[in-house]
Amino acid sequence: MHRNADTRIQSYLRQVDQRMTALVGVPFSDIQGDVEESAGINLVSKMNGGMSPDGFAQLLCETFPLQPVSGFGDPAQARGANVAVMALASFVRENPDWVQGSDGAAYRDSDGGVSRLAFGRSPDGSADGFVASHADGAELGLDERLRPVADGVDFVPMAGGRDLGDAVERLNAALESVYSTDRGMGMHV
Q: 123 and 157: one domain?
């Protein structure tokens, strides 16, 4: 009986992986830890509750702001962006000053504006990674799911890096430098 359960789980996981790869370029098995930690969504409990593999994949796409493959030039770009969305979901869970927006980026109200972390091309154009931006004087709105949105906000790229932690450190240093120089005072972000 144990072997039948394992076979059933593996079959369900394969189907979910195939559906997620088709939808967002990332198999569920690559982001499973982030999903379970960030939203408490467990594959086995959903399977045992009768949810279809397609339904499970759709639930993930509704829960997290994952972007469809069709919105990118190729599946590898979708994969990179959606793996970053899941990394940002974990980051937000561990850093309560930050919230994840409807676009998958992470946002933080800072003194004097809003900071943003998103997947994209680094400010110097050298590589894809995390781009840390800031919009002085900006405020966040909320969408229908109460996720923050920054419609019409012009963010200025200030730092970046392949590693999320590095991008955050560089952003904080850049903001500290800008605010201490421009306003004659330090800033805690």
A: yes
Instruction: For residues 108 and 161, state if they share a domain.
Output: yes
Range of the domain at 34: 2-69
Question: What number of other Cβ atoms are within 10 A of residue 129's Cβ?
Answer: 19
Q: What would the two tokens of residue 41 be?
A: 């969504």
Count how many domains the chain has.
Answer: 2
| Tens-level pLDDT at each residue, the chain (189 residues) | 466 668 999 999 999 999 999 999 999 999 988 888 777 888 999 999 999 999 999 999 888 889 899 988 888 889 988 999 999 998 998 998 998 887 888 999 876 788 999 988 766 666 678 999 998 888 777 766 656 666 677 888 888 888 888 888 988 888 888 766 555 444 444
